[in-house]
Automatic annotation (TrEMBL), chain A:
This is TATA-box binding protein associated factor 10. It comes from Bos taurus. Residues 1-30 are annotated as: Disordered. Belongs to the TAF10 family. Keywords: Nucleus, Transcription, Transcription regulation. The gene is TAF10. PANTHER family: TRANSCRIPTION INITIATION FACTOR TFIID SUBUNIT 10.
UniProtKB/TrEMBL annotation, chain B:
The keyword Transcription regulation applies. It comes from Bos taurus (Bovine). The gene is TAF8. This is Transcription initiation factor TFIID subunit 8. Gene3D superfamilies: Histone, subunit A. Belongs to the TAF8 family.
Length: 131, 331
């Protein structure tokens, strides 16, 4: 599986550039801290802490770990939502019956995931079969 | 509906990917957390609205999630160290997220929205603790060079060897009794040995072997002991004429045996120096000739015992025996 990802997203860069200079991140970040309590995060603190420790990050405050796990969750859920949009678009593109509305059975396939990831600058290429 | 789909999705992804054989606990460690991330990804997909997912997609997203977390950690650490600090703060993380293209403003809204499923952490296996009933003794505390989070030392009985020995008895009475009984046993054993190897006389006519007595050898010249000078005079004589060496002409005729009638108490070496007619040729080690020790005039060439030194030796042994008997009767 070959996956190349660039950190900078061309679409999100203008939005983040607006919030990059000084006071804007400092204002938004503390608001995220009390909101992100342990009960709401999907990723347990132990798991996130484990991967952060492997990277050399020693967290003094557990809220920092929850913030990071929340950010990672959002990252994945954004991609999932984009993939869902792709899946829905493919389903209703050829003008099938509106009443069924794709009978609410969406399966995440690599065909939907690949274009969603390419918008983020991540290019994946999975071989169809192994020889 | 969402919960059932989540469990179905999670179980599906779990069974499809659970074909690895993990061997050591380190691999288990990694796999447990990886599995947790997979469960998280599956629940996120379910939240987004997917009913099922391809295994390849779930694996892709899991890999992305793991790298994302690791990259945030690495980058935040770099930013923190860039400003000469060691502990990352909130601003380091915010800057990291911004650099990675993450829109930080949308975070609070997302936090408020996702309040549904909680994933439990992978179980932590503790060290096997020996139950209280089986512990014996105090564990050794850690020396200073070992951190405190290391496991404790095992029970001391597993690695300390203490040799067991009995304290020797130092009671005076017991020691005296022991010494006396030992001396009695030694005397009895030696006299029995002599009786068995030499000539014996018996008190009882019928029973010869029960109470053997060492055969008494009467003096051929009974009054010899009275005529001979005492030991002290002998020593003086030795000193005055140390240059004289008497030949052993008379030694062959003298049956020099000291065997008083207190035979059952004596232990003495038999002196039969040059007997040709060896009636006492029993082969006992006690009948070997005695080589007298020269204390005043050491001359290695003189191996033949002179008459004077022989007699002196005899008298010294006799005196010793007398002392012994008197000591036994007194003590």
């Amino acid at each position: 599986m070959s996956c190349s990802g660039s950190g900078a997203d061309p679409e999100a860069a203008p939005a983040s550039a607006a919030s990059a200079p000084g006071p804007a991140p400092a204002v938004s970040a503390p608001a995220a801290l009390p909101a992100g309590t342990a009960a709401e995060n999907k990723i347990p603190d132990a798991v996130t802490g484990y991967y952060l420790n492997r990277a050399g990050f020693e967290a003094s405050d557990p809220r920092i770990i929850r913030l990071i796990s929340l950010a990672a969750q959002k990252f994945i859920s954004d991609i999932a939502n984009d993939a869902l949009q792709h899946c829905k678009m493919k389903g209703t593109a050829s003008g099938s019956s509106r009443s069924k509305s794709k009978d609410r059975k969406y399966t995440l396939t690599m065909e939907d995931l690949t274009p969603a990831l390419s918008e983020y600058g991540i290019n994946v290429k999975k071989p169809h079969y192994f020889t | 509906m969402a919960d059932a789909a989540a469990t179905a999705g999670a179980a599906g992804s779990g069974t499809r990917s659970g074909s690895k054989q993990s061997t050591n606990p380190a691999d288990n460690y990694h796999l447990a957390r990886r599995r947790t991330l997979q469960v998280v990804v599956s629940s996120l997909l379910t939240e987004a609205g997917f009913e099922s997912a391809e295994k390849a997609s779930v694996e892709t997203l899991t890999e992305m999630l793991q790298s994302y977390i690791s990259e945030i950690g690495r980058s935040a650490k770099s930013y923190c160290e860039h400003t000469a600090r060691t502990q990352p703060t909130l601003s380091d993380i915010v800057v990291t997220l911004v650099e990675m293209g993450f829109n930080v403003d949308t975070l609070p809204a997302y936090a408020k929205r996702s309040q549904r499923m909680v994933i439990t952490a992978p179980p932590v296996t503790n060290q096997p603790v020996t139950p209280k009933a089986l512990t014996a003794g105090q564990n050794r505390p850690h020396p200073p060079h070992i951190p405190s989070h290391f496991p404790e030392f095992p029970d001391p009985h597993t690695y300390i060897k203490t040799p067991t020995y009995r304290e020797p008895v130092s009671d005076y009475q017991v020691l005296r009794e022991k010494a006396a009984s030992q001396r009695r046993d030694v005397e009895r054993a030696l006299t029995r040995f002599m009786a068995k190897t030499g000539e014996t006389q018996s008190l009882f006519k019928d029973d010869v072997s029960t109470f053997p007595l060492i055969a008494a050898r009467p003096f051929t010249i009974p009054y010899l002991t009275a005529l001979l000078p005492s030991e002290l005079e002998m020593q003086q004589m030795e000193e005055t004429d140390s240059s004289e060496q008497d030949e052993q002409t008379d030694t062959e005729n003298l049956p020099l045996h000291i065997s008083p009638n207190v035979a059952h108490l004596l232990f003495h070496p038999r002196l039969s120096p040059r007997r040709k007619s060896s009636t006492s040729a029993c082969g006992s080690p006690l009948s070997y000739p005695v080589i007298p020790s020269k204390q005043q005039s050491p001359s290695p060439d003189d191996t033949d015992p002179s008459l004077h030194s022989l007699i002196r030796q005899i008298l010294s042994y006799y005196a010793q025996a007398l002392n012994q008997t008197l000591g036994c009767s007194r003590g």
